[in-house]
Amino acid sequence: MKNSNPNGVWRLYVEDDASFDSGIISNGWSLTLITTDPVGLAADVGVFMTVSTNMIAVGSNLVFVVGVTNYGPSIASNVFVTDNLPVNADFITNTVTKGSVVHSGSQLTWNVGVLATNQGASMTITVRSPSPAQIINGAICQTVTPDANPDDDAASASATSLVFVAPTQLTGMYIGGAGFQIAVTNTSTNLLVIQASTNFVDWLSIFTNVPPPSSFIFTDPAATNFQFRFYRTLLLP
Predict the structure, then answer these.
(1) Residue range 169-235, CATH number
(2) What does the H/E/C string look like for the chain?
């Protein structure tokens, strides 16, 4: 067994398959052991990738972390990672814990160098999405040392960039016999409907606003007819 101690008791067994033979092994016997590595040089360099979030607002930064590890058993020499940047995002910056990076067009070439067994390194990539899109980043690693497991040589991660609309803001105030007054701030350009209910189950549409204006004041004179009345807003397509 590899890396085991060869010292101990060794036994030789001889089988004679001819009839009426007998005798001895003259001068005894000996065994010569030669140490070697039967598998030669072999490494398992694997790459993985994570993303800071699965969903961001348009114009926000997104961070990808690319990691590479040599799982051995041999040292991995001339390790490179090629990262294909998202085509629908703007590259901002990158940093590495080991080696150096060359940025050319939509590609980053990371020269990691030598990785000992179980040693790893990481590269952090920051991009920004200018418009709604699916942002996909992918990376491939390679080494001049024979890689016994090519299945973990590629990795990818993705996120979705969306336009987020700030929620409608409502501020209410009871104004005596005139009813209930609601100040509304609507950041959307969609139609906005104000609904009222007394039980949170049955809702009645009582006002529709067509922007502009985005901010307005609505007074519900029917509020004086109820002990309790609740309000909500709906944005229509």
Answers:
(1) 2.60.40
(2) CCCCCCCCCCCCCCCCCCCCCCCCCCCCCCCCCCCCCCCCCCECEEEEEEECCCEEECCCEEEEEEEEEECCCCCEEEEEEEEECCCCCEEEEEEECCCEEEEECCEEEEEEEEECCCCEEEEEEEEECCCCEEEEEEEEEECCCCECCHHHCEEEEEEEEECCCCCCEEEEEECHHHCEEEEEECCCCCCEEEEEECCCCCCEEEEEECCCCCEEEEEEHHHHHCCCCEEEEEECC
